[in-house]
Every structure is written in structure tokens, then in C-alpha cells.
């Protein structure tokens, strides 16, 4: 089968590999019908994910059809259309039982697919702990509608949930990349009084204004002044930092009102400074870390009901055989790209 592979730092390649086989009774084999490229894949390519294993097939955003299941898999069966969770989790350890599935104690727990074990930018993928990692796609929901459920949409849903958004709140989202837009879609479900999105790209700002006209869009240069002028208490009640740029962590806490919640979703390339003397007295609550992707069934229900629609994010489509071109477009932000869909093995 074709599989896009992490060869070495700075180099991915489309290789021929054997179709995966089940290694455990809790595994499932999924034929990947549609996948995508995540910024985290680029972090692997650039050497920013030390735990990534050279030789693995990359990719963790995908949907597909179950081809085979182990004897202890009960939630899905061959022929089911499914989303694949970015995280592998056992469902039984301390962290899983408390909903912190990103910290699953299983050897393959957390972000494994496309990082530490073979992922889904391929024709087939083996999914460990399939009862937890796969969710059946409801009738009437297309592959494109479901494509981002297991990763960036789960991230946005998680970020909105842990940020404790209330109806009277002003919410600031920093970054309008794919994850930022998914966070926006999920924050809207909480019906806050106001959502402000900070984005430096003129193309992405236009995208926001076209598709989400009720949202206020601001540039990084004017963000702090704008938020202070358009919030009730001198800053945002909730700030969700999704950009991960060199200066966005500081911007996040500077734009927050005293006693606000600052949720950091971004994955940074380098350490950030926490200047406690500068923020003394703001009494901020910081929430950080990787997504706990345990809400996928709920997200699929919301998609089926028409409450979430991420299909506008898919601006480009490529077959798996042209994934090098897809990466070139996505990595260099060419032609107004937001997200690409990589068409896999359809039959």
C-alpha cells in the first residue's frame, strides 16, 4: 500500500509498505477513505516532536471503513464508516476514567498514531483500542463533514469545554488557522455575548468575515486595545490561544481581564516565558495541554443535527498519490488554503 513516511528530520516520502495486520485483540484495521494534513505533521517534519519515530507512517486526521476487527472489539464491525481519534486510549486507567485520555497510561496511549506508531496518510491504518478510538459516522453525514472530528474539531470542543464559557462572556480566540476555526465553531455553541478572533493573515481574516460575519476580527497589532475597548472589565473573560507564534502567549494573558481563564491549545516550537512579576495581581487561571478527545460521539451528533459544519475549511483536495503536492500547498499556505483533503482508498 502507499504510505507517507517520516524518513528523517526534514524529509517525508511516499513509500510502498505492507498492509498493517492486527497485533492485539483490541485492534481494528481501517481502510482510509479520506485524510488530511495537520500542522502537527509539519512539526514532526521539522523535528519539533522528539517522540516521533523515524520510519512511521504519518497522519492522524482520517475517516474510513472498518475492514477487520480483533476478537475483543465490540463497538464497531467490518463495513462501518468511522472517524479515527487522534489519541489512543485504553478507557480503563486512572486518567481515562477521569476523562484525561491524552494521558492514558497504555504504552500506546496519547498521541501515538502518526507519531509513535503508523498513522493514516496511507491506504490502511491499524487502530489500537478500537472500541475507544473509533466512532461510527451517522447516516447522512459525509466523509468530509466528519473528517476533522477525531483531531482539530475534538481539540476545539475540548478547549471550549474546559474554558468554562458563560453567556455573558467576551471570548478571545488567538489564531484562525484550522484549529482556531474549529475552536470558534465550538465556542459558539456556548452562546457567549461576544467572540473576538485575532488573526494576522489577511486571507484568513477575509475567510472569517465571509463565513462567520457575527464574529469580530482583529489584527495582533490592535488586539489588546480592541479587546479592552470591547469588553466589560478591561479584558476578555476567556482567552483561548491557538496560534502558537513567538508572541501570542504573552498576547493571550495581556488581553485577559483579572481572574480570567487563559486556555493554551497551541503547540509551540520553543519554550515560552511565564513572566510572573509582570502578571502579578491578575490572578489568572491557565489551562494547558493536549486535547482530551473523548467527545467525538457528541461532536458527530452535533454535526448530524447541523449545529457544526467544518466543510468550508476544506479548500483543496488531492489524491493520496499527490500528497507531496498537498503538503507543499498546505505548508506554504498557497492559494488561500485552510485545510486539504487527501482522498484515500475508496474501494
TrEMBL record:
Q: Name one GO molecular function term.
A: zinc ion binding
One short Pfam name that applies is ADH_N
Alcohol dehydrogenase-like C-terminal domain boundaries: 178-288
Q: Which domain of life is it from?
A: Bacteria
Residues annotated as domain Alcohol dehydrogenase-like N-terminal:
25-131
Cofactor(s) in the UniProt record: Zn(2+)
Instruction: Alphabetically list the UniProt keywords.
Output: Metal-binding, Oxidoreductase, Zinc
Similarity remark:
Belongs to the zinc-containing alcohol dehydrogenase family.
What is this protein identified as? Answer: Alcohol dehydrogenase catalytic domain-containing protein
| Species annotation | Caecibacteroides pullorum
Amino acid at each position: 500500500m502507499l504510505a507517507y513516511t517520516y524518513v528523517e528530520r526534514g524529509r517525508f516520502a511516499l513509500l510502498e509498505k505492507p498492509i498493517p495486520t492486527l497485533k492485539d485483540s483490541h485492534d481494528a484495521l481501517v481502510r482510509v477513505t479520506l485524510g488530511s494534513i495537520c500542522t502537527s505533521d509539519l512539526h514532526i517534519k521539522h523535528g519539533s516532536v522528539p517522540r516521533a519515530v523515524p520510519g512511521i507512517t504519518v497522519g492522524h486526521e482520517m475517516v474510513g471503513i472498518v475492514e477487520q476487527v480483533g476478537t475483543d472489539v465490540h463497538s464497531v464491525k467490518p463495513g462501518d464508516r468511522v472517524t479515527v481519534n487522534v489519541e489512543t486510549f485504553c478507557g480503563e486507567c486512572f486518567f481515562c476514567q477521569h476523562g484525561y485520555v491524552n494521558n492514558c497510561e497504555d504504552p500506546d496511549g496519547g498521541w501515538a498514531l502518526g507519531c509513535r506508531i503508523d498513522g493514516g496518510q496511507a491506504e490502511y491504518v491499524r487502530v489500537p483500542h478500537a472500541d475507544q478510538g473509533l466512532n461510527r459516522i451517522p447516516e447522512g453525514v459525509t466523509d468530509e463533514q466528519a473528517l476533522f472530528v477525531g483531531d482539530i474539531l475534538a481539540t476545539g470542543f475540548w478547549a471550549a469545554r474546559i474554558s468554562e464559557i458563560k453567556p455573558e462572556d467576551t471570548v478571545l480566540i488567538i489564531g484562525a488557522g484550522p484549529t482556531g476555526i474549529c475552536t470558534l465553531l465550538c465556542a459558539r455553541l456556548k452562546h457567549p455575548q461576544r467572540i473576538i478572533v485575532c488573526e494576522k493573515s489577511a486571507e484568513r481574516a477575509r475567510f472569517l468575515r465571509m463565513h462567520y460575519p457575527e464574529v469580530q476580527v482583529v489584527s495582533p497589532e490592535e488586539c489588546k486595545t480592541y479587546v479592552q475597548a470591547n469588553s466589560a472589565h478591561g479584558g476578555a473573560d476567556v482567552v483561548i490561544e491557538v496560534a502558537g507564534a513567538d508572541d501570542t502567549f504573552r498576547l493571550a494573558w495581556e488581553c485577559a481581564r483579572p481572574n480570567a481563564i487563559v486556555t493554551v491549545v497551541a503547540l509551540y516550537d520553543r519554550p515560552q516565558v511565564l513572566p510572573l512579576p509582570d502578571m502579578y495581581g491578575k490572578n489568572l487561571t491557565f489551562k494547558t495541554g493536549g486535547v482530551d478527545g473523548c467527545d467525538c460521539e457528541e461532536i458527530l451528533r452535533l454535526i448530524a443535527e447541523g449545529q457544526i459544519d467544518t466543510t468550508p475549511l476544506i479548500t483543496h483536495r488531492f489524491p493520496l498519490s499527490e500528497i507531496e503536492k498537498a503538503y507543499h500547498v498546505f505548508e506554504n499556505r498557497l492559494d488561500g488554503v485552510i485545510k486539504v483533503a487527501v482522498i484515500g482508498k475508496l474501494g
